[in-house]
Amino acid sequence: MTSYVAEQITDPVTGKGRRRLIAILRGVQPHEAADMARALVDAGITMIEVPLNSPEPLKSIAAMKEAVGDAAMIGAGTVLTTKDVADVKAAKGEFVVSPNCDIDVITKTKELGMGSWPGVLTPTECFAAIKAGADGLKIFPASIIGAEGIKAMRAVLPQSTPVYAVGGVGPDDFASYAKAGCDGFGLGSGLYKPGMTATDVSNAAIAYVSAHDAVFG
């Protein structure tokens, strides 16, 4: 049985040193949250996002953090307001992901010492997010501009800023997106949908990890 006393995060804001995958558990419920987090950590995914439009998301975030401790970074997605940011911090969340580039949300996230991953789709949004202090960029929905669009933007973005593709990108796409300059991926409905068991999620996560490791080593 895993003890969940994992290595300390090299960088508690960006998660540097971990696999370049963020699990997105939209719709997860508090009673199953701990088991889902353990299943993901066992499979090798150690950044887990609970979207705030899930049932009682703050309870799920707190339950996951208690279950796995420093073995994973637990954060929130679909974070739209500064109040949401404060609520996530109070629930022991460690990073904030949004579908949009809201400067107030980014600023508040950084004030509270959490990782900031705003959603962006254009160079203007990318540079505005970076200027506001974002730690990484969530290209969303990535399938709209594809790997070639990301490649064009990556040519002008700071190489030190991680770029993750989210939305319509599956394990078969990892190689082409990585070649285009993506540093990692957000995993949504292909990894978790309401009604799935922890075993289902584990099996899906193992497939994603395998695809990740084949590309990034």
Globular, elongated, flat, extended or rod-shaped: what is the shape? Answer: globular
CATH architecture grouping:
Alpha-Beta Barrel
Task: Going across the biggest sheet, name each strand in turn.
Answer: 5-4-3-2-1-9-8-7-6
User: What can be said about the biggest beta sheet?
Assistant: 9 strands, parallel
CATH superfamily: Aldolase class I
Structural class: alpha/beta
Strand content: 15-25%
Q: Multimeric state of these chains?
A: single chain
Question: Secondary structure elements and their pairing?
Answer:
Elements: E1 21-24, H1 30-43, E2 47-51, H2 57-68, E3 73-77, H3 82-90, E4 95-97, H4 103-111, E5 115-117, E6 119-120, H5 123-132, E7 137-139, H6 142-154, E8 163-166, H7 174-179, E9 184-187, H8 198-216
Walk me through the structure.
It is built from 8 helices and 9 strands. It has 217 residues and is an alpha/beta fold. The protein has one domain: TIM Barrel (Alpha-Beta Barrel), CATH 3.20.20. Helix 1 packs across helix 2 and helix 1 packs parallel to helix 8. The N terminus is likely disordered.
Feature tags:
TIM Barrel, 217 residues, disordered N terminus, 8 helices, 9-stranded parallel sheet, alpha/beta
In a nutshell, what does this entry contain?
The chain has 217 residues and is of the alpha/beta class. It has helices at 30-43, 57-68, 82-90, 103-111, 123-132, 142-154, 174-179, 198-216, and strands at residues 21-24, 47-51, 73-77, 95-97, 115-117, 119-120, 137-139, 163-166, 184-187. It has one domain: Aldolase class I (TIM Barrel), CATH 3.20.20.
